[in-house]
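User: Sequence recovery, please. Input:
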Protein backbone atom coordinates (compact mmCIF):
# COMPACT_ATOMS: atom_id res chain seq x y z
CA UNK A 1 0.00 0.00 0.00
CA UNK A 2 1.33 3.40 -0.97
CA UNK A 3 0.78 6.41 1.28
CA UNK A 4 0.40 9.81 -0.39
CA UNK A 5 1.93 12.91 1.10
CA UNK A 6 -0.40 14.69 3.41
CA UNK A 7 -0.14 18.34 4.46
CA UNK A 8 -1.10 18.39 8.15
CA UNK A 9 -0.63 22.15 8.44
CA UNK A 10 -3.49 22.70 5.96
CA UNK A 11 -5.99 21.15 8.38
CA UNK A 12 -8.08 23.32 10.65
CA UNK A 13 -7.63 22.66 14.36
CA UNK A 14 -10.73 20.51 14.73
CA UNK A 15 -9.95 18.60 11.51
CA UNK A 16 -6.42 17.98 12.73
CA UNK A 17 -7.70 16.63 16.02
CA UNK A 18 -10.33 14.49 14.29
CA UNK A 19 -7.70 12.96 11.98
CA UNK A 20 -5.68 11.81 14.98
CA UNK A 21 -8.83 10.69 16.80
CA UNK A 22 -9.56 8.33 13.92
CA UNK A 23 -5.99 6.98 14.09
CA UNK A 24 -6.36 6.48 17.86
CA UNK A 25 -9.66 4.68 17.35
CA UNK A 26 -8.17 2.38 14.69
CA UNK A 27 -5.20 1.47 16.89
CA UNK A 28 -7.53 0.91 19.84
CA UNK A 29 -9.75 -1.33 17.71
CA UNK A 30 -6.91 -3.51 16.41
CA UNK A 31 -4.79 -3.25 19.57
CA UNK A 32 -1.45 -1.51 19.96
CA UNK A 33 0.12 -4.80 21.14
CA UNK A 34 -1.13 -6.67 18.06
CA UNK A 35 0.30 -3.94 15.82
CA UNK A 36 3.54 -4.00 17.85
CA UNK A 37 3.40 -0.23 18.53
CA UNK A 38 2.72 -0.11 22.28
CA UNK A 39 5.54 2.27 23.22
CA UNK A 40 4.98 4.75 20.36
CA UNK A 41 1.22 4.57 20.93
CA UNK A 42 1.63 5.46 24.63
CA UNK A 43 3.70 8.51 23.60
CA UNK A 44 1.06 9.33 20.97
CA UNK A 45 -1.72 9.23 23.60
CA UNK A 46 0.13 11.71 25.82
CA UNK A 47 0.41 14.20 22.97
CA UNK A 48 -3.16 13.43 21.84
CA UNK A 49 -4.46 14.34 25.32
CA UNK A 50 -2.47 17.59 25.24
CA UNK A 51 -4.07 18.49 21.92
CA UNK A 52 -7.51 17.72 23.34
CA UNK A 53 -6.81 19.96 26.34
CA UNK A 54 -5.51 22.80 24.20
CA UNK A 55 -8.64 22.63 22.01
CA UNK A 56 -10.89 23.08 25.03
CA UNK A 57 -9.96 26.69 25.72
CA UNK A 58 -12.88 29.05 26.20
CA UNK A 59 -12.73 31.41 23.26
CA UNK A 60 -15.07 33.97 24.80
CA UNK A 61 -15.51 34.51 28.47
CA UNK A 62 -18.93 33.59 29.81
CA UNK A 63 -18.98 36.89 31.67
CA UNK A 64 -18.22 39.15 28.67
CA UNK A 65 -21.85 40.16 28.07
CA UNK A 66 -22.57 40.44 31.78
CA UNK A 67 -19.51 42.66 32.17
CA UNK A 68 -20.62 44.93 29.31
CA UNK A 69 -24.08 45.25 30.84
CA UNK A 70 -22.66 46.07 34.29
CA UNK A 71 -20.42 48.71 32.71
CA UNK A 72 -23.39 50.23 30.87
CA UNK A 73 -25.28 50.50 34.18
CA UNK A 74 -22.47 52.31 35.97
CA UNK A 75 -21.88 54.56 32.91
CA UNK A 76 -25.55 55.50 32.95
CA UNK A 77 -25.38 56.29 36.66
CA UNK A 78 -22.29 58.44 36.18
CA UNK A 79 -23.96 60.35 33.34
CA UNK A 80 -27.13 60.81 35.40
CA UNK A 81 -25.10 62.16 38.31
CA UNK A 82 -23.21 64.48 35.97
CA UNK A 83 -26.47 65.70 34.40
CA UNK A 84 -28.00 66.34 37.84
CA UNK A 85 -24.92 68.36 38.74
CA UNK A 86 -25.10 70.29 35.47
CA UNK A 87 -28.73 71.09 36.18
CA UNK A 88 -27.91 72.17 39.74
CA UNK A 89 -25.56 74.82 38.34
CA UNK A 90 -28.74 76.62 37.20
CA UNK A 91 -30.71 76.04 40.38
CA UNK A 92 -32.92 78.89 41.65
CA UNK A 93 -31.30 78.72 45.13
CA UNK A 94 -27.86 80.32 45.36
CA UNK A 95 -26.82 77.76 48.01
CA UNK A 96 -27.44 74.96 45.53
CA UNK A 97 -25.61 76.79 42.73
CA UNK A 98 -22.58 77.25 45.01
CA UNK A 99 -22.60 73.57 46.01
CA UNK A 100 -22.88 72.59 42.33
CA UNK A 101 -20.00 74.89 41.44
CA UNK A 102 -17.74 73.23 44.05
CA UNK A 103 -18.70 69.74 42.88
CA UNK A 104 -18.26 70.70 39.22
CA UNK A 105 -14.59 71.42 39.89
CA UNK A 106 -14.14 67.87 41.21
CA UNK A 107 -16.02 66.33 38.26
CA UNK A 108 -13.97 68.39 35.79
CA UNK A 109 -10.80 67.03 37.38
CA UNK A 110 -11.90 63.42 36.72
CA UNK A 111 -13.38 64.09 33.29
CA UNK A 112 -15.78 61.69 31.60
CA UNK A 113 -14.73 58.49 33.37
CA UNK A 114 -17.39 56.54 31.45
CA UNK A 115 -15.18 56.70 28.35
CA UNK A 116 -12.14 55.17 30.06
CA UNK A 117 -11.14 51.49 29.75
CA UNK A 118 -12.69 49.19 32.35
CA UNK A 119 -9.83 49.17 34.89
CA UNK A 120 -9.18 52.90 34.63
CA UNK A 121 -12.87 53.68 35.00
CA UNK A 122 -13.14 51.43 38.05
CA UNK A 123 -10.16 53.12 39.73
CA UNK A 124 -11.36 56.62 38.83
CA UNK A 125 -14.82 55.95 40.21
CA UNK A 126 -13.40 54.56 43.46
CA UNK A 127 -11.31 57.71 43.91
CA UNK A 128 -14.16 60.02 42.88
CA UNK A 129 -16.65 58.41 45.27
CA UNK A 130 -14.17 58.55 48.16
CA UNK A 131 -13.40 62.18 47.48
CA UNK A 132 -17.08 63.10 47.24
CA UNK A 133 -18.05 61.21 50.40
CA UNK A 134 -15.09 62.42 52.46
CA UNK A 135 -14.74 66.04 51.31
CA UNK A 136 -18.05 67.04 49.74
CA UNK A 137 -20.71 65.34 51.86
CA UNK A 138 -22.36 68.68 52.66
CA UNK A 139 -22.65 69.56 48.95
CA UNK A 140 -24.08 66.11 48.17
CA UNK A 141 -26.70 66.54 50.88
CA UNK A 142 -27.57 70.05 49.69
CA UNK A 143 -28.14 68.80 46.14
CA UNK A 144 -29.76 65.51 47.23
CA UNK A 145 -27.07 63.53 45.40
CA UNK A 146 -25.95 61.31 48.27
CA UNK A 147 -28.01 58.34 47.06
CA UNK A 148 -26.70 58.79 43.52
CA UNK A 149 -23.12 58.53 44.79
CA UNK A 150 -23.94 55.49 46.96
CA UNK A 151 -25.59 53.73 44.03
CA UNK A 152 -22.70 54.58 41.71
CA UNK A 153 -20.31 53.15 44.30
CA UNK A 154 -22.39 49.96 44.65
CA UNK A 155 -22.55 49.41 40.88
CA UNK A 156 -18.83 50.11 40.52
CA UNK A 157 -17.98 47.60 43.27
CA UNK A 158 -20.27 45.02 41.65
CA UNK A 159 -18.53 45.60 38.31
CA UNK A 160 -15.13 45.23 39.97
CA UNK A 161 -16.17 41.93 41.59
CA UNK A 162 -17.39 40.65 38.23
CA UNK A 163 -14.12 41.68 36.59
CA UNK A 164 -12.14 39.85 39.28
CA UNK A 165 -14.21 36.71 38.75
CA UNK A 166 -13.39 36.96 35.06
CA UNK A 167 -9.69 37.08 35.89
CA UNK A 168 -10.02 33.91 37.97
CA UNK A 169 -11.92 32.29 35.10
CA UNK A 170 -9.06 32.96 32.69
CA UNK A 171 -6.49 31.73 35.19
CA UNK A 172 -7.84 28.17 34.93
CA UNK A 173 -7.33 28.05 31.17
CA UNK A 174 -4.62 25.79 29.84
CA UNK A 175 -1.16 27.13 29.20
CA UNK A 176 -0.75 24.79 26.24
CA UNK A 177 -0.44 26.41 22.83
CA UNK A 178 -2.36 24.48 20.19
CA UNK A 179 0.16 25.35 17.49
CA UNK A 180 3.02 23.82 19.49
CA UNK A 181 1.01 20.72 20.38
CA UNK A 182 0.04 20.22 16.73
CA UNK A 183 3.67 20.35 15.66
CA UNK A 184 4.55 17.84 18.37
CA UNK A 185 1.70 15.58 17.27
CA UNK A 186 2.67 15.75 13.60
CA UNK A 187 6.25 14.84 14.44
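Assistant: Recovered sequence (187 residues):
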Amino acid sequence: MKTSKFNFSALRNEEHFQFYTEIKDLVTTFGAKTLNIETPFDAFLLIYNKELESLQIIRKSASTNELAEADAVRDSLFRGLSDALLSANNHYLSENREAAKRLSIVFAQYGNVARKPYNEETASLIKLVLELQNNYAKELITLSLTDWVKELNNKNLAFDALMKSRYSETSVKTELKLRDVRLEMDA
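The chain is about 75% helix and 0% strand.
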